[in-house]
Amino acid sequence: MNLLENIREAFRSIQSNLLRTILTALIVSIGIMSLVGILTAIDAMKASLNATFASLGANSFDIEAKGYSNKFRRGGMRGHIYPAISYLQAMQYKQQLGDEGRVGISAFIAGAVKVKAGSKETNPNTNVTAGDENYLLNQSYNLSAGRAFSQLELDNGSNVVLIGGEIREKLFGNVGDAAAVGKYVYLLGRRFLVVGVLERSGSGMGGGGGADRLVLMPLSTGNQMPRKQALTYDIKTSVLRPENLPFAMDQARGLMRAVRHDRLGQEDSFEMESSDSLASKLDSLSGTMRVGGFIVGFITLLGASIALMNIMMVSVTERTREIGIRKALGATAVQIRQQFLIEAIVICVLGGALGILLGVSMGNAVSLLVGEGAFLVPWVWMMLGLAICVTVGLGSGYYPASKAAGLDPIESLRYE
């Protein structure tokens, strides 16, 4: 029997034991689905997060005081090592950097805030931030209705705000974003005029609601708000060309050290982070997740291979008389072993093909639940899945095939 005839014989055997073959293939497909699905989900989520970083701008970096973080805060202050960045320091940095970059200054005012309009109010999950004229551009926030703050409002600290789409929906219903412009809202003991509504941005990283649960007021207005402790300011700097980012960061570090009066030899009293550094951290995290996903998939495949070996042993026992007839007709031990190995590989490949299809679908579905992103076809993991199928077929089928090849033809013919 040549290789082609062994493949045909494998399919004939599969057809004669269709139910058992389907169940065996399903066991393999579940193992491959878990492996390919987990790896696909990790890659799809990584692609989605990389797109988010790209939208935030690969040509920007943030400066904040060490020990403070205004991002995704739920209220309260963390312990600090160095003093917070003051308004004067932030403005000095902005003025001294000049035209080398577009500097946006913001301050976290309060978290877990309720916003009211008439008889309606939001849940206590609103973040209130104060920002300057560059805040929207640097954060890649767009307006769906209304306008940005005027220079007069920024200079005079007017009681005007931009609100997120979720806040607009809670307070004004499904009347459209434009209907909220010109209305008044109440928060933190003051009345504010809504001059614009931010486009929806989804939950965002960190679960803070992104722009959807954000109330933005002019920076000078935020400075006037009553508070128990001094504000800390975050600085976001964007450069026109991404290739200039390393030079701009070095220049900004020198300016900020001078503004903060960091002594020679002392470490920076502030932290600088670019979207590139976030992407490198994401690469490291996704690599660790891949290892974990591969281990989980491998354990599942190990169980599938044991089940396949057991079923192949049953198949050898049931076909003992057939093996004796083949040997009596001149089939060698190598040909018998090859026949059963090919049968195991064919079953694994059939199950693996189904598992890869389900795994790719499952991985992309999980990614869509976490965030938005394009459909990902992981060719590397698909090829790896097929290679693993062949390996599992060889590993699970070798012992049963060797047992079949070692049967005595006379004893086999007597088997009932």
Helical segment count: 13
Give helix % range: 55-70%
The arrangement of helices and strands along the chain is HHEHEEEEHEHEHEEEHEHEHHHHH
Spans of at least 5 consecutive residues whose pLDDT stays below 50 are 70-80, 203-208
Structural class by secondary-structure content: alpha+beta
Oligomerization state = single chain
Shape: elongated
Notable traits:
2 domains, alpha+beta, 13 helices, 416 residues, elongated, 55% helix
Quick gist of this model?
By secondary structure, the chain is of the alpha+beta class. The protein is 55% helix and 16% strand.
Commentary on this structure:
Belongs to the ABC-4 integral membrane protein family. By secondary structure, the protein is α+β, with helices and mostly antiparallel strands. It is 55% helix and 16% strand. The chain is built from 13 helices and twelve strands. The strands form two sheets. Strands 1, 2, 5, 6, 7, 8, 9, 10, 11 and 12 form a ten-stranded mixed beta sheet that branches. The chain has a two-stranded antiparallel ribbon with strand order 3-4.
Topology summary:
Elements: H1 3-16, H2 18-56, E1 60-65, H3 87-97, E2 102-113, E3 116-117, E4 120-121, E5 126-131, H4 135-139, E6 143-146, H5 151-156, E7 160-163, H6 165-172, E8 184-187, E9 190-198, E10 214-218, H7 219-224, E11 233-238, H8 245-260, E12 270-274, H9 275-318, H10 320-328, H11 333-370, H12 379-405, H13 409-414
Parallel strand pairs: 5-10, 7-9
Antiparallel strand pairs: 1-11, 1-12, 2-5, 2-11, 3-4, 6-9, 7-10, 8-9
Helix pairs in contact: 1-11, 2-9, 2-11, 2-12, 3-8, 9-12, 11-12
